[in-house]
Amino acid sequence: MSHQLLKGKRGIIFGALDEKSIAWKTAQVCHAEGAVFTLTNAPIALRMGAINQLAEECGGAKVIPADVTSEEDLNKLIAESMEVLGGKLDFVLHSVGMSLNVRKKNPYTDLNYDFMHKTLDISAISFHRLMQLLMKQDAMNEWGSIVALTYIAAQRVFPDYNEMAEAKALLESFARSFGYHYGKSKKVRVNTISQSPTRTTAGSGVGGFDAFYNYADTMSPLGNASGESCADYIASLFSDYTRMVTMQNLFHDGGFSFTGISGDTMQMFADKGEG
């Protein structure tokens, strides 16, 4: 049910690859809630995905290719988005992450450092780069909202998450540090959402994903948060109802982050002991 939470708001949504992605679902929710926006992803991702279908579904949203490691691309994206949308931006979603070490199945203790640099650049430094360029172009309206997606591996050890854990920790640090400066200068909010394991195309590529997913689902009193519910949460952070929330890492994980052990998990080990 639409409440028109974002009526009149303009934004940019990064990372909508296919209908499984949280960015894709966020675009659908933002459109339903009255927002207008541009869609962007890396040129190679646009060729692989079906983003034009999403753009058509969202009222003919403009699709603008951009490599998040390129200042030139990001500057062009920001300027063109403001031109197309008719003014400054009210929200931005950074839903970007990639690790060649994960793709190549390199173990954490034997990483390729050139790959690691690329991981950190794409998955974390791009967030700082984006916000710095938004600020330099004075592209955000006061009380605007910037959100990036993260994962609890930034705080806890999940061995198969590999170097993406460090990338997410850096991402969260940028949200706090840049959030302070953007808040002081323009009243712009910056937050990260730490989402449950979600069956996206990118997430499913992490080794042992099914074990990640099932463990979190068993531990969480509400179960894993779906991509659809995450999209709703993102829309709420783009809205005026959360105008005083900034510099936060917000757990959206059905309670997983604060659950020491669940009754179901205890029963599993009790059953194992009895066997």
Report on the architecture of this protein.
- The chain is of the alpha/beta class and 275 residues long.
- The chain has a single domain (10-274), classed as Rossmann fold.
- Helices cover 45% and strands 14% of the residues.
- Strands 2-1-3-4-5-6 form a 6-stranded parallel sheet, sandwiched between helices.
- α4 runs parallel beside α6 (113-136) and α6 (113-136) runs parallel beside α7 (164-186).
- It is globular and about 65 Å long.
- The model has no long low-confidence stretch (mean pLDDT 94).
Question: What's the structural blueprint in terms of helices and strands?
Answer:
Elements: E1 10-14, H1 22-32, E2 36-40, H2 43-48, H3 51-57, H4 71-85, E3 89-94, H5 100-103, H6 113-136, E4 140-150, H7 164-186, E5 189-195, H8 209-219, H9 227-238, E6 249-252, H10 263-274
Parallel strand pairs: 1-2, 1-3, 3-4, 4-5, 5-6
Helix pairs in contact: 1-9, 4-6, 6-7
- Which secondary-structure class do the elements indicate? alpha/beta
End-to-end gap:
49 Å
Average pLDDT rating: 94
CATH class: Alpha Beta
The number of distinct helices, counting runs of at least 4 residues, comes to: 10
Spatially, the strands of the biggest sheet line up as 2-1-3-4-5-6
Order of H and E elements:
EHEHHHEHHEHEHHEH
- Unreliable residue runs: none
Major sheet: size, sense and barrel closure?
6 strands, parallel
CATH topology group: Rossmann fold
Roughly what percent helix?
40-55%
* CATH architecture name: 3-Layer(aba) Sandwich
